[in-house]
Amino acid sequence: MQSSDRLYRLTIEQAHKLLIKKEISSVELTKAVLERISQVEEKVHAFVTVTKESALSQAEEADKCLKSGDASPLTGIPALIKDNMCTRGIRTTCSSHMLEKFVPPYNATVVERLNQAGMVMIGKGNMDEFAMGSSNEHSAFFATHNPWDLERVPGGSSGGPAASVAANEAIYSLGSDTGGSIRQPASFCGIVGMKPTYGRVSRFGLIAFASSLDQIGPMTKDITDCALVLNAIAGHDPKDATSVNQPVPDYTKALIPDLKGIKLGVPKEYFVEGMEDGVRKTIEAAISRLEQLGASVDREVSLPSTKYALPVYYIIAPSEAMANLARYDGVKYGYSHEGANMWDSMEQTRGHGFGPEVKRRIILGTYALSAGYYDAYYFKAQKVRTLIRREFDEAFKQYDALITPTSPTVPFKIGEKTGDPLKMYLSDICTLPINIAGIPGLSIPAGFCDGLPTGMQILGKPFSEETLLRVAYAYEQSTEWHKQRPKL
Amino acid sequence: MKLNREDVLHISALCRMKLSDEEVERFRNQLSNVLENFEILQQVDTTDIPPTAYPIQLLNVTREDEIAQSYTQSDILANAPRQEDGQFRVRAVLE
């Protein structure tokens, strides 16, 4: 029997077992998580909105389903949703003044799917404004703090979703990842985060940042939970023309605790200049562990185009962003500034509604797409994108998965990188190429450097999420990292 | 690539986004620095390499044209900053 005040520590799998055995109810679990939020949220600041009342009524509904035996593995489990996924009737801000009062008339497909699976939505998670950033310091409202060291950033842009799971303020969360926004904060907060293959999960209702790169994915306490959430959200959606119509396997079947016959490669370009020594040692130790578990490891893999990923990303993502964010004109929804005339109103709306990083990227994207520069920047970047993709294709003819660090550093101090955008952009150096190629990537806790979490990234070919989960699961089962939680 | 003040003002006009003098100067500096780091791309030989717009190639995505429930007028207007007679109110385009 669990003591009810510690229920917030449970994983999805553990909570589900207790729920179906009627040892706990969803209302008890939800109250325990809400109580935890009231205790630690003033330190962590992971939530833009806590949806206490709707959570409790969803929990009551979930208890009815559990009683009648009509329950999925996610029924009655409290989750946090990143605040760029539309929730009908519940404010969805993108952590921007532009959408501070926006109440969507519909649910994102992932929210619909989780609702059908019996989710208890506990709140909406803080993020870098419009998902542009690597530290959550670009939220227009407040910065989220890393639960392992409150003076440090939780990573970004899914910093709220990551910190809430690490701090036990949610059992799991959904993040979105355009260049590392699930994996880097998962690494910084010591949890699991997966960016699925582009097209595996519907983007309908995800507020668009860069449409050819964005993907939604699970952020969880362990790999089993990651598989359970992916089971619920993956699949074709007629409302998203880029979602792929491929059967969804039961991802929990991939959780096999050995790696016999698995071929792994380690691309040397990911052990970049400026990488912290502690991170390098941690990842090298994790790779040796994978070998002990039966995998063959080639440490001499080379993906020479990796060095072009940063410029390719910071041309393509802002270019797509400037087009996607053109809709914020103060007419249909969002912040609106009453100016002298139509153009003045629009220019002031955008000038006041967007924060500095969003403006910087809109300017950059507009520049890259403007007359005279399109060929040199945007078109060139799209061609180099092809080269990066092809290198991964070639590598995956030889290897089942590639292993890299998720981030070259441990979480940095709040304020350390805000003055220099390029320095901030470099913190995503290991995660950007994966979105460029559209392949799946997963970050898993691989140890600690000076008490701060470090993540290992596992990459695979398109639609090989099962392989990633198997490698990660085998590793996780041989370690204790995922069981550690910060003291708050 | 060094941007000058006029470049930044031209771009901000193209994307209809008002910037303060301080922002123009800050972005001019920061983006010049970022663009300098992009020059490495010009070294890459991309002769005969096709561009990638989307990583997973899908062709001719269509669906049946079925009648389904849409949103109500009041749902769609609920977030409008200004509305009148069930319509979005906009500023005069021609004055």
Task: Give descriptors for this structure.
heterodimer; A: 488 residues; alpha/beta; 11-stranded mixed beta sheet; 38% helix; B: 95 residues; mainly alpha; Histone, subunit A; two-stranded antiparallel sheet; 35% helix
Structure description:
Chain A is an alpha/beta fold and 488 residues long. Chain A is built from 15 helices and eleven strands. Chain B has a domain at 5-39: Histone, subunit A (Orthogonal Bundle), CATH 1.10.20. Chain B is 35% helix and 4% strand. Chain B has helices spanning 5-14, 21-38, 73-77, and strands at 83-84, 87-88. In chain B, a hairpin with a 2-residue loop joins strand 1 and strand 2. The longest helix of chain B has 18 residues, at 21-38. The radius of gyration of chain B is 23 Å and the shape is flat.
Give a nutshell description of this structure.
With 488 residues, chain A is α/β, with parallel strands linked by helices. Helix content of chain A is 38%, strand content 13%.
- Mean pLDDT of chain A equals 96
CATH superfamily of the domain at 8-253 in chain A: Amidase signature (AS) domain
Strand proportion of chain B: under 5%
Strand segment count of chain A: 11
Strand line-up across the major sheet of chain B: 1-2
Give the chain pair forming the largest contact, with residue counts: A-B, 71 and 51 residues
Gyration radius of chain B, in Å: 23 Å
Please describe the biggest sheet of chain A, giving its number of strands, its sense, and whether it closes into a barrel.
11 strands, mixed
User: Radius of gyration of chain A from the CA trace?
Assistant: 21 Å
Number of strands of chain B: 2
pLDDT average of chain B, as an integer? 92
Percentage of residues assigned to helices of chain A: 25-40%
- Secondary structure category of chain A: alpha/beta
